[in-house]
Design brief:
323 residues; alpha+beta; Deoxyribonuclease I, Chain A; 11 helices; globular
């Protein structure tokens, strides 16, 4: 049983990283409660301790594989060497405006995190009105996406969304060019299509064809959004609700060329979508190009949404030398 458990842990890691968001069954595991794979570890460890202590080795290795490659745990070891707090703090947060009961209080709570830039998805006029009343903050809404910032906004461009049948669309994105103390800064706020539209029919005995279509739509959406976001070839930050975990083949195909702040310096699991039975890290801050290096990434507090804010500190490369 101990060695079989290790084989299962290895198979789960290979399945998630190799086939997640490529075919139906691995995708259900990718966006499902992976923690259940950890359940056998405790009874197997206890049994091994009583019967054959040397079997604690494969059981321990299995648990580490599940906590790390399978569940996404991070040590954040690169962040241990960051000696300064960074030059820029960015927060991304899915407000879930249709369900959030505390929207008027959210802008002040986000501002209390002391960021320079806040990008919000599933936003509302109520949020913008409350944010605009905060001293020193500029707030604007572009469709379902919002921006709060302490910097001057020089230009705004909104990506055209291509709608699909019943799988939503290719996603929403807005590009902001800001005037910051570190110079011109480009930030792209994104909200990509959810895998839930493909997974939901399976819960009720529906056909897997909807999930297959959903995978194709999300792959096309990520491809299109990445090309649009990085079209000018400049160093920029891309932040928002990607509706993708980092193990996803779609994420790796289209976004792995950028540095994921939590993957690099975050500690723990970094879950930003928090549900009753399981959670996932689908909200990201990415630095694309060589301009910015993440030095800290943490998950913020509960602000009435089923998402949590992702709070990231970044350092401008070469900024210390310039000073």
């Amino acid at each position: 049983m101990a060695w079989g458990y290790l084989a299962m842990a290895v198979a789960a890691a290979i399945t998630i990283w190799g086939l997640g968001d490529r075919s139906v069954l691995p995708t259900t595991l990718l966006y499902g409660p992976r923690w259940v794979l950890l359940v056998p570890a405790a009874p197997l460890a206890l049994l091994g301790l009583m019967v054959m202590p040397k079997l604690l080795g494969p059981v321990t290795l299995s648990a580490l594989l599940i906590l790390g490659p399978v569940m996404g745990g991070r040590t954040g070891w690169r962040g241990w060497f960051a000696a300064d707090p960074g030059d820029l703090r960015v927060v991304t947060f899915n407000l879930d405006a249709s369900q959030n009961p505390i929207i008027p209080q959210v802008p002040a709570e986000l501002a209390a995190l002391q960021p320079d830039i806040i990008v919000v998805q599933e936003c509302s006029d109520e949020f913008v009105n409350a944010a605009g009343s905060l001293p020193g903050w500029l707030a604007r809404r572009d469709g379902s996406l919002c921006l709060m910032t302490r910097f001057r906004v020089d230009s705004v461009e909104e990506m055209e969304t291509v709608r699909t049948r019943d799988q939503g669309g290719t996603g929403n994105a807005v590009r902001y060019r800001l005037d910051s103390p570190q110079g011109a800064l480009t930030v792209v706020n994104v909200h990509l299509e959810t895998p839930g539209k493909g997974l939901a029919p399976l819960r009720y005995g529906g056909s897997s064809s909807e999930l297959t279509l959903n995978i194709l739509v999300r792959d096309a959406g990520s491809s299109r959004t990445r090309r649009w976001a990085l079209a000018d070839g400049q160093d920029l930050l891309v932040a928002g609700d990607f509706n993708l975990v980092v193990e996803s083949a779609i994420y790796r195909d289209h976004w792995s060329g950028c540095t994921n702040a939590f993957s690099r310096v975050g500690r723990g699991f970094g879950y930003t979508r928090v549900l009753k039975r399981f959670s996932a890290r689908i909200d990201h801050v990415l630095s694309c190009g060589t301009g910015w290096t993440p030095v800290r990434a943490v998950v913020g507090p509960d602000l009435g949404s089923d998402h949590r804010p992702m709070v990231v500190d970044l350092r401008r490369r070469g900024q210390r030398e310039v000073r």
